[in-house]
Known about the structure:
mainly alpha
Amino acid sequence: MRKAFALRIDPELWKDLEEWSHAELRSVNGQIEYLLRQAVLKRKGGGRSALGARSAADEKDGPMEGREEN
C-alpha cells in the first residue's frame, strides 16, 4: 500500500518537474518518486536491491522504451 501525503512545492520547481516528467513520459508524482528512489539508492550506495524490485504501479509511471518524440 502506498502512503499519501501533502507536499508544498515552489511553483517554479513544479513547472520544471512537469516539463521533465513530460519529457520522460511519467506523471509528476511518478517523476518525484523516481527521483527520490534514485537519491535513496545513491545514498545507500547500492543497486536496485537496496530498495527491492519496483512494483507494477512504479512500472506504469516509468518511461516507455523505444518511443521517439516528435
